[in-house]
Amino acid sequence: MKVVRDDISIVLGGAAGQGIQTVEVLLTHALKRAGYHVFGTKEYMSRIRGGINTTEIRVASRRVRAFVKRIDLLVPFKKGTLTWVKDRISDNTIVLGEKENIEEEFLEKINLVEVPLTKTALKVGSQLYLNTIAAGLIFGLFGAPVEIIESEVRNHFKGKSEKIVEKNVEAVREGYNIGRSIAEEGKIVVDIKPDEKVKEEILLSGTEAVGIGALAGGMNFLSFYPMSPSTGVSTFAAQHAEEFEIIVEQTEDEIAAINMAIGAWFAGARAMVSTSGGGFALMCEALSLAGMAENPVVIHLAQRPGPATGLPTRTMQGDLNLVLYAGHGDFPRIILAPGTLEEAFYLTAEAFNLADKYQVPVIILTDQYFVDSYYNLPEPDVSKVKVEKYIVKAEKGYKRYKLTEDGISPRAIPGYGEDVVVANGNEHDEWGDITEDAEITRKMQEKRAIKKLETIKRNAPLPKIIGREDAKFYVISWGSTFHIVEEALELLKRDDVAHVHFSWLYPLNPKIKDILAGKTLIAVENNVTGQFADLLKKELDIRVDHKILKYDGRPFAVEEVYEALKGVIE
Amino acid sequence: MTPKEIFESNRPGSKDVAWCPGCGNFGIRNILIEAFSELNLKPTEVVIISGIGQAAKMPHYINVNGYHTLHGRAIPIATAVKAANPSLTVIAEGGDGDMYAEGGNHLLHAIRRNPDITVLIHNNQIYGLTKGQASPTTPIGMKTPTQPWGVFEEPLNPIALAIALGASFVARTFVGYFKESVEIIKQAIKHKGLAIVDIFQPCVSFNKLNTYSWYKEHTYWMKDHDPHDRIEAFKRAIETDPLPLGIFYINEKPTFEEQVPAYKRDKRPLWMRDPKIELVKKFFESKR
Ligand SMILES: Cc1ncc(C[n+]2csc(CCOP(=O)(O)OP(=O)(O)O)c2C)c(N)n1
Ligand code: SF4
């Protein structure tokens, strides 16, 4: 008998095109509606059919929001799955499935609970029902009412014929009954308590959090050229374009995409591009234009490993240096990296205010792990999102690049006011006309690269400290690793270790130096050189004592961070 | 009619014009001002988005909204300006290097997209600002500092290219013909959809072949040409000497802004709009 208490990590593995995603969608939604905390994340190969893709679904009695290496329940849909995840299998792993999907060499060693998935599918009518049966089967182990997953099935297949819907409902019930009998016979006992409050919460992915955040922030123009793993945000926007009455355009390349976004802002829209490192590389020239012309623009960059096309479907925090230094010449920019889905929503919305206010590029850094992960969370409070517009009327004699104390010139847009607006990517005078005057050049360089930067720095928020401020050790994380480090620290249970998370990466507020002074600093980064640690050194002369780095294209697992931290601290 | 003076810029930076004396760019500027004024446009309603090059300096010498951007990138920027605020009259302007070389890809796709903008190409068949290298329209055999052996690449035929792609409005003129050019530019601006006007313009400093008199001698005005006949338009477009001038082709079709969902119900420009917070709430509701 196998008992799993309070927190189960279920991994489904199979080929691309086999429909694991259906199982994942049905299960996570149904489990969440049944009141369980859920977390889902996937890893997949850069191919459309075949290979091995896996999805991890954690279900727990308390909030879980991070990837773990551990597999409690493994459901293989294809031979090869066990080999692919073999370093995640332990004596406690239960394999649930059919012998045909398990490699010979594992049969002896694993805890196998056999289920006649294919036979049941054929009984219902076709192999096609396998996925729905599997979803019902796993759901059955939890013992929540079957009606919940039935209604998920109806919802998922709505739009298909009545017959298909009914067959799938039959399939999910068949699966559910098998699941129940496995549980009742005590072969697998899952003891997880539902929480009424979860039912009130929402289930959101990183992609959706960024997408809906942008819409809440007033995004009304998105231009893009597809590139994994950023495309989801563009797809999201396109699918909501009619409802929200916004413009979403797939351009001929990334160069056109960002130039369009720049043009849209110039005319007063709130525009965003969504891209990945390779696409952003093409946007650098226009980034410089935005810098010189003081043209706002918002860029969502979902990182994947590079250089070049790297690992298209995998994850890394490797593009911080790219966005820090992209573009020629000196000009300020703002770099954000949400750590939680709540933050992705609020920060993406805020990015538009920041771009509007400071008239600089604002870059939102996520990564494959972040955009492809999802979990339940309390509904964000949309009333907290404030749309701040900084557009002014062009009065007579309007100067687009008026020299001001804080480096910010009020921005007018064409067609609003009595005078014209002249913007320029060449060095310019206050009116926006080309200049080669040494004195004006000096003033304009200082305005952009010093005065404006200082203004942004002064107003930059500080990192979040979780734990005791007087802790001896500070574990520094940024962006998507937030929950992984959070859970690793919960395991570590030491009150001399605190967590410092940065979701505002640049420019850094000078006060951070005092906050981090005198601590033993440990940076956790999903890249090979520790790019953020280097930034702390360069910007604030803060030396990180230890770096915990992972750069195999996979996210950190909670266990890995926990082990590494123990290694450093003990 | 709007007086032409309102398009004269009083900004200090507009006084020192960077064009060489005798350059065709002056003529194009005057043609533009005349066209704007005859169309009764107001300076605040017009936006010129230019790329980089001598031609692209236009926004500094004229009193309308302007954005001097990057080499080859005027078209995507202009497209978005028009899409964000369709009440503006938007012109993308640049040289032959700007529009046909660095910006070639954007031109192709603008034709597919069909935004309601006017693309003006100052075609001096040479790179002016970088001092006389060959451009995509430089004739075979011309020797330049960077093609000392003489250009051997087939010159681009922008007119034939645009017609082949089914562009909405395709015309060619020569700056030496003031009245006719004003008329063509007016037609181009009034045309609903992407209007491409290739303007022959002598570069007196670097192109010693394609001079004012050369263009006069090697061009003619099309008479009795039906611009709605694509085959005829194409035949005219591949004539080489003399080169036809006038409106080659008109292909009425829906514009980009007409088709984006943003304006189906709401006609206000994007800057006047607020986020639809109730829809954000509805989205969250659907995620329960
Ligand atoms: C990305 C980039 N590459 C090259 C240049 C240098 N450059 C400036 S103008 C120009 C060509 C100008 O020729 P054309 O577009 O025909 O305009 P003209 O000066 O003849 O009006 C070039 C190559 C640049 N500014 N930007
Ligand atoms: S270089 Fe040629 S195109 Fe440029 S301003 Fe001089 S004459 Fe005109």
Write structural notes for this entry.
The complex is a heterodimer of chains A (570) and B (288). Chain A folds into 4 domains: 1-199, Pyruvate-ferredoxin Oxidoreductase, domain 3; 202-382, 3-Layer(aba) Sandwich (Rossmann fold), CATH 3.40.50.970; 390-458, no CATH class; 462-567, Rossmann fold (3-Layer(aba) Sandwich), CATH 3.40.50.920. Chain A contains 20 helices and 25 strands. In chain A, the strands form 5 sheets. An 8-stranded mixed β-sheet of chain A has the order 7-6-5-2-4-3-16-9. In chain A, strands 11-10-12-13-15-14-23 form a 7-stranded mixed β-sheet, sandwiched between helices. Chain A has a 5-stranded mixed β-sheet with strand order 20-22-21-24-25, with helices on both faces. In chain A, helix 1 (20-33) runs parallel beside helix 5 (130-142) and helix 6 packs antiparallel against helix 7 (162-184). Chain A starts with a strand and ends with a helix. The mean pLDDT of chain A is 97. Chain B has one domain (3-286): Thiamin diphosphate (ThDP)-binding fold, Pyr/PP domains (Rossmann fold, 3-Layer(aba) Sandwich). Helices cover 32% and strands 16% of the residues of chain B. Chain B has an 8-stranded mixed β-sheet, sandwiched between helices. In chain B, helix 6 links the parallel strand 5 and strand 6 (195-200). In chain B, helix 1 packs across helix 6 (178-190), helix 3 crosses helix 4 (104-113) and helix 5 runs antiparallel to helix 8. Chain B starts with 23 loop residues before the first helix and ends with a helix. Classes of the chains: A alpha/beta (570), B alpha/beta (288). Chains A and B meet through strand 9, helix 9, helix 10, helix 11 and helix 12 of A and strand 2, helix 2, helix 4 and helix 10 of B. Bound molecules: thiamine diphosphate and iron/sulfur cluster (SF4). Iron/sulfur cluster binds at residues 19-20, 23, 25, 54, 124, 128, 203-206 of chain B.
